[in-house]
């Protein structure tokens, strides 16, 4: 069983789950998730000979959630991981990220190659810094209903998600992000859209899992996690010096074939061009029939790929 503790670093208090001894592996979760999202990976990686540490990321769960929206930039979130390595008494680590945790992991490797020796990204391809700010590009393309845009106005998405937190977690995790239309907001429907409250949970998600997530979000609310989206344009500006940069460390990419992050036009193009950013890509694993919550949905496939790669 993992141990848990909270440690001060980089100006915040960070909660983490931890197990095992050996080379350090950091597991960075995404939205709307928690360190708990790695519950199947932590014991497996620990048994394989690694010191595994999965934090609640900045703004999530039992980790501090600064009030300032600007405190959630890619520099802050990567800075947390750099500080975490030091706080654990280590000089190097391997880093794995899923969903929003994937850009953190990719940028850890890009910004600090001396610290992060290997990198694995789940569901979200590595950064291809586009020709303009992401929200500007959406507007220029005539898109006004994408969920990134809906998340920008502080308080709007928070109110929707906090109305019934249990139902929110059941809908977002249970329904998944398999259909691209789920990422577009229909007028008056919000992000959760047409909720089917009695829809059964998928077999990989239990009532106990939903209860764990819901209890955590009842305490923390959703603002911290949503503030990550409110830095999309700012992150583009901050990463200007890394335009066209590559990640030269050994890398791994894993995603589900039914994950709309990689099946849309842009996502599919990025998955086809991974080597442009990852010249040392060791494996691209697309898990047939799996959706977005890949490490929870298909733990055996993900664990096997991670262990082979990290070893």
Model description:
- This protein is 39% helix and 16% strand.
- The radius of gyration is 18 Å and the shape is globular.
- The chain has 311 residues and is an alpha/beta fold.
- α1 (41-47) links the parallel β3 and β4 (51-55).
- The chain has a single domain (3-310), classed as 3-Layer(aba) Sandwich (Rossmann fold).
- It starts with a strand and ends with a helix.
- α2 (74-87) packs across α3.
Please supply descriptive tags for the structure shown above.
single chain; 311 residues; alpha/beta; Rossmann fold; 8-stranded mixed sheet; 15 helices
What secondary-structure arrangement, pairings included, does this model have?
Elements: E1 3-9, E2 12-19, E3 24-28, H1 41-47, E4 51-55, H2 74-87, E5 93-98, H3 101-111, E6 116-122, H4 134-140, H5 147-150, H6 156-163, H7 165-175, H8 207-220, H9 223-229, H10 232-238, E7 251-256, H11 260-263, H12 265-272, H13 274-277, E8 281-287, H14 294-297, H15 299-310
Parallel strand pairs: 3-4, 3-5, 5-6, 6-7, 7-8
Antiparallel strand pairs: 1-2, 2-4
Helix pairs in contact: 2-3, 7-8
How would you characterize the largest beta sheet?
A: 8 strands, mixed
CATH topology annotation: Rossmann fold
Q: Would you identify the CATH architecture? A: 3-Layer(aba) Sandwich
Question: Structural class from helices and strands?
Answer: alpha/beta
**Would you identify the regions where 5 or more consecutive residues have pLDDT less than 50?**
none
């Amino acid at each position: 069983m993992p141990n848990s503790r909270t440690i001060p670093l980089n100006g915040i208090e960070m909660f983490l789950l931890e197990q095992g001894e050996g080379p350090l592996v950091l597991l960075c979760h995404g939205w709307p998730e928690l360190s708990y999202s790695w519950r199947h990976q932590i014991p497996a990686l620990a048994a394989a000979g690694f010191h595994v540490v999965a934090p609640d990321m900045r703004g999530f769960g039992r980790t501090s959630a600064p009030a300032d929206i600007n405190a959630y930039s890619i520099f802050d979130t990567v800075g947390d991981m750099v500080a975490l390595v030091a706080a654990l008494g280590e000089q190097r680590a391997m880093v794995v990220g899923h969903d929003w945790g994937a850009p953190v992991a990719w940028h850890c490797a890009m910004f600090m190659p001396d610290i992060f020796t290997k990198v694995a990204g789940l569901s979200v391809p590595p950064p291809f810094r586009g020709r303009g700010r992401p929200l500007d590009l959406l507007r220029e393309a005539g898109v006004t209903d994408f969920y990134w845009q809906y998340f920008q106005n502080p308080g709007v998405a928070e109110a929707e998600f906090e109305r019934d937190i249990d139902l929110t977690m059941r809908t977002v995790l249970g329904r998944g992000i398999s259909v691209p239309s789920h990422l577009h907001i229909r007028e008056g429907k919000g992000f959760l859209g047409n909720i089917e409250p009695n829809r059964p949970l998928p077999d990989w998600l239990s009532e106990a899992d939903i209860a764990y997530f819901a209890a955590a979000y009842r305490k923390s609310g959703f603002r911290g996690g949503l503030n990550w989206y409110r830095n999309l344009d700012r992150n583009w500006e901050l990463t200007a010096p890394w335009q066209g940069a590559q990640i030269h460390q050994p890398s791994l990419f894993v995603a589900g074939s039914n994950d709309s992050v990689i099946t849309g036009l842009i996502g599919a193009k990025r998955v086809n061009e991974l080597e442009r950013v990852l010249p040392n890509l060791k494996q691209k694993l697309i898990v047939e029939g799996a959706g977005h919550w890949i490490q929870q949905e298909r733990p055996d496939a993900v664990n096997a790929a991670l262990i082979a790669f990290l070893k």
